Hints:
Elements: H1 2-23, H2 27-45, H3 49-54, H4 58-68, H5 72-75, E1 87-93, E2 96-101, E3 105-111, E4 114-125, E5 128-135
Antiparallel strand pairs: 1-2, 2-3, 3-4, 4-5
Amino acid sequence: MRAASARASGSALLTVALLGALTGCGGADARGDAAARAATRFEESLRTPDAACAALAPGTREELEHDAELPCARALPDAGLPEAGSVRSVDVYGTQARVVAARDTLFLSFFPQGWKVVAAGCSPRPAQPYRCRIKGG
């Protein structure tokens, strides 16, 4: 009887572990929704550069400031980011996401503080990586 009970307990634990692994942090749909919200907040915050800079991943912010030789809040308005428009699709791969909007594509990474923009103003190129107006190194 003990062996059967141990097998049942082990099987239950394995099931819970597999379900946890498959759903991850709230599942792909929840992560995709969160990434889309972060991209939308970034787009909306472009009118307030300090808020938009806070939505950038640290490496992206550093590269923007380095390239422009200006603080982020002054460099970001000059980056020429398009008005993204509504979100059309979101792809999530672990801690990375691609948010495709009507007129822009943004790439995000998940940090302890939440989703941050690692690249924006991105346009696809046939058989090549995206070309992005701002990106992290």
